[in-house]
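Q&A log
Question type: sequence-to-structure
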Amino acid sequence: MKKILIVEDNELNMKLFFDILQFQKYEPIKTYSAEEAYELLKKESFDLMILDVKLPKMSGFDLLEKLQNEKISIPQTIIASACAMDEDKKKALEYNIDTYITKPIDINGFVKIVKEKLNV
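Response status: OK
Response body:
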């Protein structure tokens, strides 16, 4: 079963991501902060990460930078953001992340992207 880390501080978005992924027979793991995600990524490996950009204290991009600097493996990642700003898309590319979705998400589109990322 593919293990997917969700890093999302909004409870409604978290529930939506979690329920969709669980329904698709994946193993979603919830984290509500970049700090919590960082601790998990140091210890475990994931097939995919759904990463919110705007998080309290440490942003999604700060998390990616910290992982990269500490040479901790970054799983395939989908950036999920409420605002599709070109500068955020450019910043994502700096971390070799080319998949960027905007919230509210299109459920069918999201499922398709997840399957593509996981090569399912």
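Response note: The chain is about 45% helix and 20% strand.
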